[in-house]
Amino acid sequence: MKIFSTDHKVIGKQYLTLAFFSVALGIVLSLIMRFHLIRPDAKISWFATLWPVGATGGIMTPELYLSLMSIHGTLMVFFVLSTAPQGGFGNYFLPLQIGAPKMAFPVLSMLSFWTTFLALMALLASFAVEGGAPLSGWTAYPPLSALGQVAGPGQGLGMDCWIVSIALFSIASLMGAINFITTILDMRTEGMNLMRMPLTCWGWFVTAIISLLAFGVLLAAGILLFMDRNLGTSFFIPAGLVVSDQLQNHSGGSPILWQHLFWFFGHPEVYIAILPGMGIVSTVLSVFARKPVFGYRAMVYAMFSIAILGFFVWGHHMFISGMSPYSSIAFSLITLAVGVPSAIKTFNWLGTIWGGKIRFTTSMLFALGFVSVFVSGGLTGLFLGQPAIDLYFHDTYFVVGHFHMIMGVAAIFAIFSAMYFWFPKMYGRMMNDNLGQVHFYLTFIGVYAIFIPMHFLGILGAPRRYADFKELEFLAKSGILQRITTYSAYCTAAAQLLFFGSYFYAKWRGPLATINPWDATTLEWTEPSESNVVNHAPDVYSLPGEEKDFVMQSDQ
Amino acid sequence: MQKSKTAVALLLIAIGMVFASLTSAMVVRRGLGGDWRALPFTALSLGNLLILMASSVALEFARRQKSSGLWWLSCCLGALFLMMQLLVWRDLMSAGFNVATNPSSSFFYLISGLHGTLVLGGLAALATTRAMVATWYWHGMSILWMYLMLLFQWMQ
């Protein structure tokens, strides 16, 4: 296998490997943070070995906690949720599903993967540079992110590493987006008109369009921030700012300007993470319910509605930043309007499985789990989307619980569903279904046990990003919630070892798979030698009077 | 090739989004307070805009008449544009406007620098291919600079 391969399957696997590495590291970071939250005074000798400055004597400083949190967020949002479903499964399966021999620009695919790889290296390098990793979270709010070392240990070179990483990631995503859109528009096989594409392809298509429009904004914002830090400009830094008792030599900028630019990217980014998952789940539910997707066209239009609305809701991240109440109301209404296409999708998922002959494979369970956490996470969005309620909930654990459910866990469930579904195609072997079922139930119960208590903490007023709550009198009795969250996180993380074990065992020792183990209809399950002329919709199941309960897209 | 046409159209959209966000940042930053200072633009920058537009026109004729000479003329005009941009920068610096002097000059150096980099990429493309999509990209850069000059005038 060539390292700098231009084969879309190899590139897909490279993306998935990168995402697996990132998610493993991200989970380890979150476990360390969760441990610190329930035992803030613990002396851990290997903390001191790893971070001699951040954890002198083994006791974690608040700055170290913030840097772990920043890298956790950046890894998970960019290198896992934006990478695995789109770069990983997208590169691997998009050409197969539309009957294209390869992506439109194989060299561009290769470049976009390796640029993503460089971006990850730049991010990880921040741990090694003087001062360590940045403290500003994945949102990197100025002014503290724009000032350099004076704003904290990780705000020096570590923050520059972060900006370089994000800029590279943006460029890689733009290359990927151009490649995906071109492939879908120009490389479909005969008979594969747009409305015969599996919904997975629609998910990748809409996601690529969002990426194309959103990542340029992040790139521009990143360059401005870099200039403020290194060239002495004042885009985001106000005049007369005193940080660490030092007057900063800048004038007239506005940190709010960054928030506008960042969230204009940042909100569509949420949909970049979730839309490929929606496509995967739609397909998987249909396959294992042995029924066509309920309301295929409505699903496509709903994806586009979510994408379009997603560009007009960024202000709901900034209700508390000082905004005209009229703007707040406008942003709030558009935000709540996103609930309409989301509800259409949920309704259609339920319609798809309604009355189906459901096969409860692991992949199906994760798809159903996706619908569950998507609804649970979406409902709390209705609270946060309203300015008056958000003023209270802003920057509390309620928000942390909300976005982990709707963006993090939902997208991860879709990734698991896709992994269990496509594993036989990718490796020619089957994963163990019993192990998978155990993995699913532990994970499903685990994520609720982690994130539901966070909502209660938020209602109590626990602020996010705090390294410990010892000083906060009003949270004195909430220790039990923190402990439930932490112990659930330990157990859920341990359950993932089951997945990794099962994955590697199946890859090398699993029973051999047949060509089409799930009786699915889409083109990736055809014999490689068959001609790929498409004659049918992607989801023809259970035709009355037929012996075989499915018709493949390439069948006569 | 249909797919390279699609790709270049998409590339221009992506580039457009970068400059759209810089435009909005500029409008917001200028509206923040009284520290915005007008840049001393000379006839040089206007003349330079005309050079880039002339380059685009030459390229369009080169494409239609399949004329190699006009194609190279267009490239030379493009290279001239880049050199003249450096002269514009030198003039601004001698007038006391450096990158950090004022947000107006910060934005100008950033935006003209980004645009110049993209034009340099376009020159490399024109030198290596005669594909129609290269001319699309080149026209895109000309139109972009026309828009940016209008923006700078408006932002004075």
What would you say this structure looks like, in words?
The complex is a heterodimer of chains A (556) and B (156). In chain A, 64% of the residues lie in helices and 1% in strands. Chain A contains 16 helices and four strands. Chain A has a single domain, classed as Cytochrome C Oxidase, Chain A (Up-down Bundle). With 556 residues, chain A is mainly alpha-helical. The two termini of chain A are 36 Å apart. In chain A, a hairpin with a 2-residue loop joins strand 1 and strand 2 (246-247). A two-stranded antiparallel sheet of chain A has the order 1-2. Chain A has a two-stranded antiparallel sheet with strand order 3-4. Chain A is globular, with a radius of gyration of 24 Å. Chain B has 156 residues and is mainly α. Chain B has a single domain, classed as Cytochrome c oxidase, subunit III, four-helix bundle (Four Helix Bundle (Hemerythrin (Met), subunit A)). In chain B, 82% of the residues lie in helices and 0% in strands. The longest helix of chain B has 29 residues, at 2-30. The mean pLDDT of chain B is 94. Chain A binds chain B through residues 104-105, 174, 177-179, 181-182, 185-187, 212-217, 219-221, 223-224, 227, 231-235, 239, 251-254, 257, 260-261, 264, and chain B through 2-3, 6-7, 10-11, 13-22, 24-25, 28-29, 32-33, 35, 99-100, 103, 106, 110, 114.
Written as H for each helix and E for each strand, in order along the chain, the element string of chain A is: HHHHHHHEEHHHHHHHHHEE
Number of domains of chain A: 1
User: How many beta-strand runs of chain B?
Assistant: 0
**What general outline of chain B do the C-alpha atoms trace?**
globular
Spatial shape of chain A: globular
Task: Offer a quick outline of the entry.
The complex is a heterodimer of chains A (556) and B (156). Chain A has helices at 8-38, 45-50, 62-81, 83-98, 106-128, 157-186, 199-230, 255-289, 296-310, 325-337, 339-353, 362-384, 387-393, 397-427, 433-460, 479-509; strands at 242-243, 246-247, 540-541, 550-551.
